[in-house]
Amino acid sequence: MNIEQRVDAAVEELLPDLLSYTQKIVSFPSTAGQEWEAQQYVSAMLRERGFTVDMWEPDVGKLREDYSFFTGSRPTFQGSPNVVGTRKGSGGGRSLLVDGHVDVVPAENTEEWSTPPFAGTIQGNRIVGRGVSDMKCTHALLFFCADVLEKLQLRLKGDLLFASVIDEETGGAGTLACAQRGYHADAALLPEPVSMAVCPAGQGVSYFKIFVKGKAFHGGARYYGVSAIEKAMDVVKAVNQLEEARTARLAHPLYRNLPTPFTINIGTIRGGEWPSMVAGEVVLEGRFGVAPQESILEARADLENCLLCLGETDPWFKEHPPRVEWTANFLQSGEIPAEHPFVRTLAADYEAVCGKQPQISGTPFGTDAGTLIRLANTPAVVFGPGSCAHNVDEGMDIETLKTYARIFIRTVIHWCGVEELP
Fold first, then answer.
1. Is 229 in a helix, a strand, or coil?
2. Which is the catalytic residue, given 99, 167, 168, 335?
3. pTM
4. How many C-beta neighbours within 10 Å does residue 414 have?
5. What is the widest separation between alpha-carbon atoms in the chain?
6. What is the spatial distance between Cα 31 and Cα 164, in angstroms, rounded to a whole number?
């Protein structure tokens, strides 16, 4: 048998271990601020497989000092460490960084789940649990890949790095701190839930608040006041127009099938103090999509300029311009050429396993890939097996996980290079 056939046989034989690793990492309810225990487990599993482990808590002050776009989700990451494992190759190969976030969103509405959310329950041909798809299967696959290489007595030529990062769901500080610490590689793979599309382009995300001022007055004489609610409606209209203009200006070939690929979504609105008062202030909160070809600061400037322009036609806005505040999430956008050697390697391995060419597209959501591309000088591709996230009964078909494991291990071998141990 050739190496690929041996990999397939080992995946089949050791599949129960892959499922067990997935169940174990899912069992840690590692929501924001609760990652410590999960990261201790990850560190131990990496050390057992010959990785040198670096564990540290990102420094909010240093991140804010080094990166002007940084808007932290918390005042400190004490008790929320990053973990990076490095297994040196024998030499002469290319390095690969696998990036997976250990933090998960809360499992709300637990009464609607068919199984306890953090049990990692196997239901027929599926494994169900918070984080199975997004994206703790990455951790299980990395451990499993090391096991398969050991079983087959194969040694990688290039270095293999694994970054188990925090804060992806609530900001992006984990991978940003890895870049700040100097971690990089010849390529990076992020197994986010994109239904095994190969994504060399990824959008970014920045959350915002817009503060709209009015003039409070008694509702019985509201004509003496200025309603912040009515002014907020003007702001929403302007933001929608900005979204349309950006959709045309930032058209991207890997997003051509989406009507509005880089959305500006206003998700909450709060304002007013009393039914019989003219509202003196309204606060709009939302999500700003960042195109792959623009920086997060360039994207933010679009919204800031849009709000300033309101004063050109409205005297109230000229004297009381809406104020924007950039909040927690700051995931970078980024892209690499679709012809990049790592993209070609992934696509070839997908085709060899699945018998068809993969879909080449851009991510429909923000990920840590842009941080690696822009700030760690590391070409990054999002390619993962999941197709659902943040939902009740999050899970994955076991056959899909097995298929992805075959592609994943092939890609590690083909990219890094491999030699037989004596």
1. helix
2. 168
3. 0.95
4. 18
5. 90
6. 14
Q: What's the half-sphere exposure (Cβ side, CA atoms, 13 Å) at 370?
A: 27
Residue 103 appears among annotated catalytic residues:
yes
| HSE of 184, CA atoms in CB hemisphere, 13 A | 14
pLDDT digits (tens, 9 = 90+) for 329-349: 899 999 999 999 999 999 999
Q: How many CB atoms lie within 10 A of CB 166?
A: 30
Q: Are 47 and 53 a contacting pair, CB within 8 Å?
A: yes
Look up residue 412 and give its amino acid. Answer: V
Find the catalytic residue in 103, 134, 167, 294. 103
CB atoms within 10 A of CB 200: 28
Q: Which two tokens stand for residue 222?
A: 């509201």
Average pLDDT taken over every residue of the chain: 97
Encoded tokens for 323: 């104020």
pLDDT of residue 397: 96
The CA angle 91-93-96, to the nearest 5 degrees, is: 115
User: How many CB atoms sit inside 10 A of residue 114's CB?
Assistant: 11
Rg (CA), the chain: 24
Entry field: residues in the chain: 422
Count of CB atoms within 10 A of residue 3's CB?
Answer: 15
